[in-house]
Design goal:
globular, 193 residues, binds fe (iii) ion, binds guanosine-5'-diphosphate
Amino acid sequence: MTAFEEEWHVVEKKVSAQLSAGRFQHCLRVADYARRLAQENGVDENQAALAGLVHDYAKERPVEDFLTAINHFHLDPDLKNWNRAIWHGVVGAEMIQDELGIDDPAILAAVRLHTTGAGVEMPTLAKIVFMADYLETGRDFPGVKEAREITDKSLDRGVFYQLQHTLSFLAEKGNVIYPKTFTSYNDWARHFA
Ligand code: GDP
Ligand code: FE
Ligand code: FE
Ligand code: FE
């Protein structure tokens, strides 16, 4: 086994132990999709696959764990006013470093940004995980085929497509929207204007 295969094996077991079967399978599909997007966009494939594998590691943690971690890691106290949808990326990245021993700052940044996206300065690996999460082969929403085609042509266009559609979807449902989701959208809207 290569060093990567050994690391993968150890991490995979730890991720699997934290998640329902369905969400764990989602993580494996995100890893596969991220590997392919990495190949097409000149990013290290193993790095992208590992980021995909761990991206939802914290998604099923109890609220208490997140509140404790926000204190423990000295994160912005305003995070306490949000919920698991936001925490599992931003706070999850700290848990992944702490509990899985993953120190690669690019992987941790990709996890941190995978729900809200970021502006045009978003690192390529983070764009890849953001899009793989949205487009993995188990996803089936109106427009997913178009979103996959756009992303194959341009990763950046894909990121903007997702931000535009997620923002509309959340607003349509009357959900509260995290400010970072807005600023990510605005930055890309300006970029493509
Ligand atoms: P998942 O973890 O694989 O389900 O995917 P994500 O981490 O990308 O998203 C988790 C959930 O958060 C999805 O239902 C998104 O629509 C939702 N979400 C994304 N941005 C925001 C936001 O700004 N506010 C809220 N409330 N939800 C958001
Ligand atoms: Fe997620
Ligand atoms: Fe996402
Ligand atoms: Fe996910």
